[in-house]
Amino acid sequence: MRLSAIGRTAVTAGLLLAAAACGGREDTGAGAGATAAGACQGQQTTGITDTGIKLGGIYPLSGPASAYGAIPKGIKAYFDYVNAEKNGIGGRRVEFVVRDDGYQPPKAVEEARRLVEQEQVFALFQTLGTPSTTATWDYAGQRKVPQVFVATGASKWGTDTRHPWTIGWQPNYVSEARVYAQYLKQERPDAKVAVLYQNDDFGKDLLGGFEKAIEGSGVTVVAEQSYEVSDPSVDPQMRNLAQSGADVLLNVTTPRFGSQALAADARNTRWNPLHIVNNVAASITVLRPVGFENVQGVVSATYYKDPVDPQWKNDPEMTLYHAKLKQYAPDADPSVPYHAFGWAVASSFHKTMEAAKCPTREGLRDAMRNLSGVEVGMLLPGVTMSTGPGDGFPIESMRLMRFEGERWELFGEVIDTRKEFGPLTAD
Hints:
four-stranded parallel sheet, 13 strands
């Protein structure tokens, strides 16, 4: 629920009481091995003190997925705003340390170790990408470091029971695939679908979810082409898919390859499929280089507010976002959705940390797995965060959108995939 000023005061007071109940720390510094005493006895306080909290993020600031480098700018703007104007989170100023892994899993492991062992962060907040998160979650679990709200929608973050220290945030790829499958079954019940997908856990997760969701219907997959993140282009794959006779293209890509696929589709005037692009490549920064006139009618799905959608012009959270991004990240374009994504996920961390019974790593781990209808201002109306036993997916609702003119336009109702399709469980 949205907290009133009184509610926020009560939460903050509750955190201070919890800290007092812990009886202080056996090691008052933020060094390795610091633990709490009192009611939170033995729990880890590395990276957190009574006045500060240190977080570490891992992003591809360089390499084939560098478009995602905009996300930490939105996060840092939110934390800078909270530090300067809200006395931090529960009286603790947030320090956010960002590392670049170039979208390379071995580098992600190296950076995770540096953040945990040298920087001594309290938590890994956001590890971007399914390959990088897969490479690091064993390490985070072994070190008992929260790996909170990773920036990837792989379904295993919510179904795996062996990694309680790692949790996702955005809707998982299988649920997203179910949304597209439902749309096609209703609007194009005899659709013939060609699929372009990234050849890793990300691409296979969404493709597998889609294939399972269309079972028993008239919708069929007639062609599949994969690509590697090291490929210079997906033009050969697009030429092959164009020969399939498909009337729908499901584009399961990261930003660079999403732009290439959209451009290849626009150039091929003899093939005009309904183009569905997955959420992680649906940014205006992906579509703009192709030319807006060439991406009309493209379909995707989302769960957070688009900063260029005029319906949010007077929305309090969007107004705050625009003002504070300009103030604390003047070089960041507020129209870029990845900045709004960063703002939304930072706000989600804020709410989760406030809900922690103990200001410890264990307290954060437990809080992120016990969320109940938490409202976050940048999420679409009707989309909230909830987790619990057997449900490690904070956000499971999405809404379809279609690109019209120079922006995305929402259509249909918010789809709660938990209610529509049932809980997603490990196979």
